[in-house]
Amino acid sequence: MTVQISQKTLEDLGFADVLRALNQRCRTEPGRERVAARPFLDSAEEVTEALALVTEARSLSQEQFSLPLGGVVDLRIPVGHAEKGGMLEPRQLIDAAQLLFAFTRTREALDERKERVPRLMDIARRMPLLESLARRIDQCFEPDGEISDRASPELREARDRARGLHRRIKTRLDEMLHDEGFVSKLRENYYTLRNGRYVVPVVSNYRSEVDGIVHNASQTGQTLFMEPQAMVGLGNDLAIAQSLVTEEERRVLLELSGQLGRESARIIEGLEAVAELDEAEAVAILASDLDATTPEFAGVDDLRLRQLRHPRLVLKGTEVVANDVTLDGQAKALVVSGPNAGGKTVTLTGVGLCSLMLRAGLPIPVGEGSRMPLYRSVHSTVGDAQDLAQGLSTFSAHVVMLRDIIAVAGEGSLVMIDEIAADTDPREGAAIAIAVLEDLLAKGAFVLVTTHLEELKALAHMDPRFLNARVGFDSKRMAPTYRLQIGAAGQSSAIEVAARVGLPKQVCDRARELTLNAGGPLSKALAAAEEERRKLSEELERARVAAKEAEALRVELEKQKQNFERERRARMMQFNEDVATASDHAAAEVRELLVKLRSEQNEKALSEARLQLVQRAEEAQKRAQSAKAELFQVEAPGPANLRVGAWVHHSGLGRDVEILELSDGHAVVSAGGAMKMRVPAAELSGARTRKQQAKFPERQKQEAALKRAASAAPAQVEATNFRCDVRGMRADDALAEVEAFLDRGMRSGEEAALIVHGHGTGALKQALRDYLANSPYIRMFRPGESHEGGDGVTVVSLRS
């Protein structure tokens, strides 16, 4: 399948600007020539391969790597001349050496990266490795371009002889210029070269008195440039030596030219590879400048361009409004409406230019996730088509172009028509436009059209093949927004645009008055819809501001949470250190007492030791409780600040509780449900008031969660016949029995259970309640009431 794109379409869409931008990013003349002739690719496979090459080149540019092509000169013509036996100039040979060095550098650089850029490496392998020839040429020339004495031994010998003759002649002339009798006949006391011979400026009146040969004269004839007869022999010897130098230089140039000529085919192939690499690097740079991506195109039938930016506007460096352009499902024609200068034509030409770029194997300025078919042909009619040379009006010329497009468009074609059938009677123009569009869709073409005709805007409501889109107009600023909205038709806003460009106010006011009753139902509906869209946009903007403020608040709360967690961890570490220190101290004291007990066997000493142990234990317990309370103290309120109704932290449960009663150093507390506990006031710390909760939002969240849990829980956990009796058991056996008991209760759907453990020493009761506090089966638990068995029983509520 051959891609069909007319010259007029290329001009309408400005494809030459893209090629010009590529040309400016090339560094070699062969690369620029290749860009100028860049073809449109026929198959998806060719496009895929071209884009893969660009991807490799972009990966290099992202590494800040540039191909070492500096100094490359187009030598195709000189190398062809050398192939035919011609002799190249020194400058051409120097350029050839630089080209051969560039071949080697480029191959070596890409070979180091061949795993990442295999396609570029395949191109580079076509460059010949002729570094030895390059070095041979390079050593034959000095930096200023002169042939070096190193070029050949014969050249060095000839030049040495010539330099020796120069020195002898200058020595003889210096002696003559010190002869007063000879100097008196000269115009000035110096010597110079004329036609390769050493001469002195003799006054013409003394010509007969100076023996020698005249080689030149001044413009006035007053001075004769004569070679003294004594210098003639040496001058002849110098001329012979100089001719030998010239002949040897010519032989060197011919030798080097011949060596290049024998490699001409490989060098020209290498230049073609240079052109391809230069072009690929230029495309990669352009793609980066456009922030371009590769859309999905293989087997794609729908058009879905995300964040499309017009390539030409991006290249100009102007601020571009990115838009989404969609044409999928049954829709095959996009009808774009809205105010003049609002961006309708920009949307049209942007899509068309991107379709050409994709066919040329170039990434396009769209966002990730875009899709675009490879259109078989692209046709456009944009701008004023008036042709005075052929006697055609604007409308007639427009119709001629529509005729030509209909004749060639078919399956898989993309057609773009700007202001279709606009320059004639609106009703007849709309009829022509609808007929043209229906004919193009029947042939399988995809169409993008801009219009102000209401009949075309209404097509989307009657024919699923048509889809409306509009460019926005800000009625407050009286200016277009350049934003495209798919699925809605737009108003022309002609009067507003006219006012914006300076039409007198009284004229605009009269025009508005005339249009009040002139608009059709669709026009009025569009006006109402536009007003509704404006209100929704304002609401959306307010929502965006609120969301931004909420996000800032969330970030601040997260910071507070992190700070609180750091403080808690620090206090926990300090608590652990204090406990460890206290434990070590207590252990040391116990060891001392034990030693004392063993050494003293009388009853009184034993009684005193036991009393000391009890005192030490009580002191250790007090120190632990004090450290524990300090751990959870946030603002350091002591027990004296506790009050009924306040929320505080219980160090034993590790959670916040509410104080219900206070008496004699104890408090009755609740965690938000029906369970109540009597605990020592020393275990409570960090009173939470409303003001303090506001400072610590995480605590507010905990309180709200506890209240929600309390409201969702039953008012009271009632006693139940589902019970487990573990009296008399060892703690480990009792815990195993209770775990199996709760497991059975969860499986059978029990809501509550009763665990009978008795009073005893309290160790079994404490072990069970510690287990219940961490059990995943338990929603909450409490001691039994007096009628249930009192503190020798624990009533639990199971999770549902």
**What is the structural class?**
alpha/beta
- CATH class category label of the largest domain: Alpha Beta
Might you state the CATH topology name of the largest domain?
Rossmann fold
Task: Tell me, briefly, the overall form.
Answer: flat
Unreliable runs? 386-391, 633-638, 689-699, 705-719
Terminal Cα span = 69 Å
Please report the total strand number as a whole number: 22
**From the 3D coordinates, which CATH architecture of the largest domain would you assign?**
3-Layer(aba) Sandwich
Largest sheet: 7 strands, mixed
User: Strands of the largest sheet, in order across it?
Assistant: 1-9-10-11-8-12-13
* Overall average pLDDT: 81
Structural Rg: 49 Å
| Number of structurally distinct domains | 6
Helix content: 40-55%
Number of helices: 25
**Beta-strand proportion:** 15-25%
CATH superfamily of the largest domain: P-loop containing nucleotide triphosphate hydrolases
Question: How would you describe what is shown here?
Answer:
This protein is α/β, with parallel strands linked by helices and 800 residues long. 52% of the residues lie in helices and 15% in strands. It has six domains: 15-130 and 263-289, Orthogonal Bundle (MutS, DNA mismatch repair protein, Chain A, domain 3); 153-234; 303-518, P-loop containing nucleotide triphosphate hydrolases (Rossmann fold, 3-Layer(aba) Sandwich); 519-631; 632-713, SH3 type barrels, CATH 2.30.30; 716-800, Ribosomal Protein S8, Chain: A, domain 1 (2-Layer Sandwich). The protein is built from 25 helices and 22 strands. A hairpin with a 4-residue loop joins β14 (647-650) and β15. The two termini are 69 Å apart. Mean pLDDT is 81; it is low at 386-391, 633-638, 689-699 and 705-719.
